[in-house]
Protein: histidine kinase
Organism: Candidatus Ozemobacter sibiricus
Amino acid sequence: MEAENARLQEELKQRTRQAEAEQQRAQQLARLSAEFQTVLDAAPDRITCLDRDLRLTWANRAAARVAGLEIGEMVGQPCYRVFFHLEDICPNCPVERSFRTGQQEQDRMADRAGRTWDLRTAPILAEDGRIIGVIEVGRDITQSLHLEEQIQQTQKMEAIGQLAGGVAHDFNNIVSAIIGFAELALMDLAGDSPLHTPLQQILEAAHRARVLTQSLLVFSRRKPVALKREDLNRILTKFQPILRRLLREDIDLRVQPCPGELWIEADQTQIEQVIMNLTTNARDAMPQGGTITLSTTRLRLDPALRRSMGLPDTPEQALLACTDTGTGIPESLRAKIFEPFFTTKAPGKGTGLGLPTVYGIVQQHHGHLTWHSETGKGTEFRVYLPICPSTAAAETAPAPAARPLPRGRETILLAEDFPNMRAVTKAVLTRFGYRVLEAADGVEALDLFQREAGAIDLVLLDGIMPRKNGLEVFKAIRATHPHQKILFMTGYIDELASLDQLADPKITVLQKPVAPSLLLNKVRELLDEGT
């Protein structure tokens, strides 16, 4: 009897220990389940489990937020109804594919709210290998796709800009040669010569071509800008009469500058170009008339937003907005509006350089350009520019009185790789008495200088040349002749920046295209220095 009691007691103890162990396992499982649920609920992605009928058996809180439902309301409902408001399975459904293939699947789908989802699924397997469910993870990638599009657009604009800048630089040299030779021919003509009118027409056509190349150089950010403190409100207000002459009678122009002054670092001519291009673009979008509003605002942008726009770290920003009540920009054209030569106008009616020029100018002014358009309602362009401390505007110096072009007998070393530019520059200089030594590249220039250094009074250098560029030639000459007078001619902003960094008072830079009168005056000015 005692043995039986002992056996029963031992059996009871074992069962008690087993029950306690099972209870501990259950508690541990419950704790792990709660922790797992907490982790899934903290995930930003929507996570769901689905059965073979594509009905939800479980969902995390992110999924509930996306659906706008309680989790209990979602369970038992098909996923295509909960998330996409459809009455039938989504095309190419990744959940259905996972049930069918037993593999992980992935797809992208857009919902009615305009969000794009990256959907990834994986089968849930029983111990015997059967698929008993599928888990789906959905991530909202709308902003990521938008950012990718912005990066691609920026890269495309940079590539187009480089191409446009190269073409414009070469074409600018050709046009400059035409202008130079035409002006030289006019100097030799009598006032009543029958060739006077044709030459003037050649000059007018060449100047129009030069305007196009300057627009391309602005777009590609290769045209130098002369930045100084300007009051944006003053520029806008003074430019208003010119703008009104550009508009038809059925268009109402409203100019609304903000109170006070709005000081920015700007090239006034280029800011006027921005205002004019935006205004004419708005005008062309209103064939039936409407209203154009030009306004300025003083802003204080959030630092994170300012950095995302690429704006300088200044406390305040100036906003120039151009709003129209026109037809809006069609969806199919929106990716092309800043591409050079893209236009919806009839052949011969537009250059397609209006908005690309605006884009280039804003970039050169360290600003940011945004726009918004609604079909049938209108378009708004916004130009953000950094504000600089207030200061008095510089007084405009009176124009110098006209005087005869100066002459000389000195020797000038001319280094220019473009044959026509070299020819016209030599013709201008020799026409006014100078002796000119020609070099087609940097190496030739240095060879000539070494042979005739004692006879050379001035070195005239192009910035970009084969074998050795202008800056390399300059440094080589300075190494042996530190007082040699040197004059640069260039059309690239990158070259100007490099030359400015040298901070050498003996360097003078002329921006191409250079008018013969400006070249002659600057050459004479340099040669007369220190004499």
